[in-house]
Structure formats: structure tokens, C-alpha cells
Amino acid sequence: MRSAKGQRALRPVLCGVRTVWDTVGDGAFFCPGCGGDRNYRRLTGRRRLTVLGVPLVGRGEAEPVVECAACLAHHAPEALEHPTTTRFSAMLREAVHTVTLAVLAAGGTTSRTVLEAAVATVRDAGLDDCTQEQLFTVVEVLAADTGRGSGTDAAAEACGPTLAIELHEVLAPLAPHLATAGRASVLLQGARIALADGPYCAAERQVLTTVGSALGIPAEETARVLAEAARTPS
């Protein structure tokens, strides 16, 4: 003989509320649940009153969600704001490359030691085919495009409004996804390039200060990182 509890468990659910989901988009994202890059579906939902499992009467809209194709967990749409691992790596490479070019534009490209440090930095960031000649050419092209020419005058004007805007466009989207140590590391890489041929010149310090600002590093912390880098043998 079944117990009363067992009988209650076998009773069908006569009515309830069910969410009917519609797929409105898909793609790849970084799943907070899986901890890695996964495919997703973007879903919008409508709540329905059900009788014997059949949806009948609407009960309003459900909040849109992002469903992971692997773990099937639902996440808020804000999860799509976090870059995938692949995209994050590309953003970091672009950031290091842009900072490197900015430092070279400020300090000049006549020092072989500086160019060697710049190439090593860019290659460590993942651009394995970077060469001194490529960096030299890009800096010269940038100087020509802005009408600054090359040499000391170009270095003195290196951190004008155009370069400051470019640094902010590349670094600002990356900064929220970097820990404090990660933001300082990007700044430190630029500092080490600038210091490869001696103390910072005024233009290099100006560029590096702009880098710190674009990364959201407080001005006093930027100054501390630059000072510590200058005291540390490379």
C-alpha cells in the first residue's frame, strides 16, 4: 500500500507557470559557469499559465538571458560584455603594440637597444613575427601621416591629442578586464622600453603618463611604477 507521501508525489501538476523561450541570437562568449569560451544562445521569454502542461494564458515577459550551449546555465546579458579568451588575448596584444609604438614615437627609433627591447616586448605579447624594421617603418609612417616628421621635434610632440585619443581607444576597453597588477604590467613594459637607452626623456614620460591614465591607473600610482622601473636594473 502506497504511503500518503507517495500518493502526493504521483499526482499530476494541474496548473503552473512556464516560461517559453525564443532564440534571438547566438555566438561565442566567456561562460562564467564553465570558466572558458563557449557557444551561447540569447533567449527572450514569455511566461504562460499552464494547465496539465499546456500553455494557455500569458503572464508577461521574462527577463532575457544568455544560455551556455555546454552547461545550459542561464546568465544575464551582461555576461556578453566579458571578452572571450581569444578576444582578450587579441586586445592585450594590440595594447602592448600600441604602447610600444607610442614610446618609440616619443623617444625616437635611432637607438638599437631601444628597438631590441621593443621587439622583445611585442613578441612576448604574442606577435612573434615582429621585427625592428617593422617597428621602425610604422613609427616613421605615423610621423609622416601626422606631419611631424622624425627626430627630436617629433619626440617632443609625441603625445599630442591624436596619440592620446588612440591610446585611450585601445587601452580603455581592456582596462576593466585587467587586475591592478595587469594594468601596471602593461605600463611597466612601456617604461622598460623607454629606459633601454637611459633615463626617461620628457616626451617618454608624458606618453607613459597618458598610458597610465588610459588604463585607469591613479596618477600617483603611475608615478610610483615609473620611478620604481627607473630604479630597477633591466
From TrEMBL:
<feature type="domain" description="Co-chaperone DjlA N-terminal">
    <location>
        <begin position="95"/>
        <end position="225"/>
    </location>
</feature>
<protein>
    <submittedName>
        <fullName>TerB family tellurite resistance protein</fullName>
    </submittedName>
</protein>
<dbReference type="Pfam" id="PF05099">
    <property type="entry name" value="TerB"/>
</dbReference>
<dbReference type="InterPro" id="IPR007791">
    <property type="entry name" value="DjlA_N"/>
</dbReference>
<dbReference type="InterPro" id="IPR029024">
    <property type="entry name" value="TerB-like"/>
</dbReference>
